[in-house]
Amino acid sequence: MSANNERLRRARKVRMKIRKLGTDRLCVHRTPRHMYAQVTTADGSKVIATASTLDKELRQGATGNVEAAKKVGQLIAERAKAAGVESVAFDRSGYRYHGRVQALADAAREAGLQF
């Protein structure tokens, strides 16, 4: 079994648990070059807010490091709060909670999003 398949299996387990909780979900996806985040409804049927290093205001400079992930975390928290979402469940998509994933989560918490 490849590493990506294992990551997707872990992600599926977490998503099922979040669906049972019935809370909105903050999903994270990372590539070597970019970070993506979106807030979706509990069942995943509707996207409430999105942010990524592809946004015009975040594109300057490096996009694949911890600093860029912090900026994405702040931006997703601002957009989620503007859409009326105060509390979310953190879906790290099977990625380990360190580095850029942790930086994004910490920045979103500091910007006022409840996990």
Automatic annotation (TrEMBL):
Annotated Gene Ontology cellular components are: cytosolic large ribosomal subunit
Q: Does the keyword Ribonucleoprotein apply?
A: yes
Keywords per UniProt: Ribonucleoprotein, Ribosomal protein, RNA-binding, rRNA-binding
Entry's Gene Ontology BP terms: translation
In terms of CDD domains, this protein maps to:
Ribosomal_L18_L5e
Question: Do the record's keywords include Lipoprotein?
Answer: no
Q: Cite the GO molecular-function annotations of the record.
A: 5S rRNA binding; structural constituent of ribosome
Please give the Pfam families that the UniProt record associates with this protein.
Ribosomal_L18p (PF00861)
Q: Which NCBIfam families match?
A: L18_bact
> Which purpose does this protein serve, as stated in its record?
This is one of the proteins that bind and probably mediate the attachment of the 5S RNA into the large ribosomal subunit, where it forms part of the central protuberance.
Subunit comment for this entry? Part of the 50S ribosomal subunit; part of the 5S rRNA/L5/L18/L25 subcomplex. Contacts the 5S and 23S rRNAs.
Q: What family does the database annotate?
A: Belongs to the universal ribosomal protein uL18 family.
What is the protein name for this chain?
Large ribosomal subunit protein uL18
